[in-house]
Amino acid sequence: MTVEGLPMAVPAANLPARVRIHEVGARDGLQNEKSTVPTEVKAEFVRRLAQAGLTTIEATSFVHPKWVPQLADAEQLFPLVAGLEGVHLPVLVPNDRGLDRALALGARRVAVFASATESFAKANLNRTLDESLAVFEPVVRRAKDEGLHVRGYVSMCFGDPWEGPVPVHQVVRVCRALRDIGCDELSLGDTIGVATPGHVLELLSALNEEGVPTNVLGVHFHDTYGQALANTYAALQHGVTTVDASAGGLGGCPYAKSATGNLATEDLVWMLQGLGIDTGVDLGRLVATSAWMAERLGRPSPSRTVRALSHKEQ
Ligand code: HMG
Ligand code: MG
User: Is 303 among the domain residues?
Assistant: First the structure.
């Protein structure tokens, strides 16, 4: 399912040699599906993603099952994929209860998820922004004491459906707070996909100026306005080497109605291969995985690369 010799690898200046893809399809993608995907299909999806060469695969969330019913099978799913060789399987935990559940199953990487805005903190976590940070503090401390790797998401870094444009200083404050409580890495979420490349560069520079180095930053772009790849390219030029993406472009957020799919992993890999940047991913296998998942979901993948390469086969 690839085109021999394409894309041609033509490196460009000032870009990293390698990018780590943080695959979120099984979590960000499936949390937003109307129908609930059977647990065994999810497990097979994760296994196929691993076979395609992805080494960081966000598996599920230990959130309240009523808040995200699509991921209510976290207890059943995690043990089915936990043994995958050489693969990190981060999971989302919103609070102590979530961390208890993740630890009970042997998870080694967890992510807390904050918001740069009050409105989304309330909609997504039922807490004010500062209340949610206060909830995360003991969660992160306990996770670090247990030797876990902790990611801190920050949603609505560029714009918010209720509050409009989000000032950079507001995002920087939340990022600093998450670093101060001990998060190892941060992921900058463009939850509703409104960022543009200049804005991305402005935020990354502001974070550096306030003592948050680029090597702890990942970017998490949703593709609502078709800007996700352009934004990613800007972030790479700034030195970011961790990029979140979702196989087949699945995704969204049930608590932000204007959020659509994430940057598709295949579209990202196509661009990175063209730039001669190593990801360790086998594009053909990945496309086959997303085509398989699209069949299970009963609709075509929104990824341009999946569609182009799937048609080539017929
Ligand atoms: P709440 O209703 O305020 O919960 O929800 P509570 O603390 O008042 O507790 C109420 C009951 O829920 C209690 O049970 C708790 O034990 C239970 P009771 O005593 O009444 O029997 N409970 C739990 N049960 C299971 N697992 C738990 C848990 N916590 C409490 N973890 C809560 C607060 C945080 C739980 C809720 O708001 C929630 O689950 N929110 C999750 C929302 C979510 O998952 N959103 C999507 C992920 S974020 C995202 O997609 C953005 C991202 O992709 C980046 C980007 O794009 O920007 C990451
Ligand atoms: Mg997201």
Answer: no
The enclosing domain of 257 has a CATH number of 3.20.20.70
Question: What is the domain count for the chain?
Answer: 1
| Nearest ligand for residue 31 CA | 1
* CB contact set of 4 (below 8 Å; sequence gap of 6+): none
Which residues does ligand 1 sit against, CB inside 6 Å?
28, 31, 61-64, 67-68, 92, 94-95, 97-98, 113, 124-126, 153, 155, 189, 191, 220, 222, 253, 255
- pLDDT, one tens digit for every residue, the chain (314 residues): 677 889 999 999 999 999 999 999 999 999 988 888 999 999 999 999 999 999 999 999 999 999 999 999 999 999 999 999 999 999 999 999 999 999 999 999 999 999 999 999 999 999 999 999 999 999 999 999 999 999 999 999 999 999 999 999 999 999 999 999 999 999 999 999 999 999 999 999 999 999 999 999 999 999 999 999 999 999 999 999 999 999 999 986 677 776 679 999 999 999 999 999 999 999 999 999 999 999 999 888 989 999 999 875 54
Distance 66 CA to ligand 1 centre (A): 8
Q: Which domain holds residue 30?
A: 20-261
Any domain includes 304? no
Burial class (CB in 10 A: 0-12, 13-18, 19+), 23: buried
Ligand 2 mean position to 220 CA, how many Å?
7
Q: How many CB atoms lie within 10 A of CB 203?
A: 25
Residue 187 forms part of a structural domain:
yes
Asked if 261 and 229 touch (Cβ cutoff 8 Å), the reply is no
- Half-sphere exposure (Cβ direction) of 144: Cα atoms closer than 13 Å: 17
Is residue 22 a contact partner of residue 58, using CB atoms and an 8 Å limit? yes
- In which residue are the tokens 């941060």 written? 186
Ligand 1, atom 34, residue with closest C-alpha: 125
Report yes or no on 228 lying in a domain: yes
Pick from 27, 64, 66, 219 the residue to mutate for probing ligand 1's pocket: most ligand atoms within 8 Å of its CB: 64
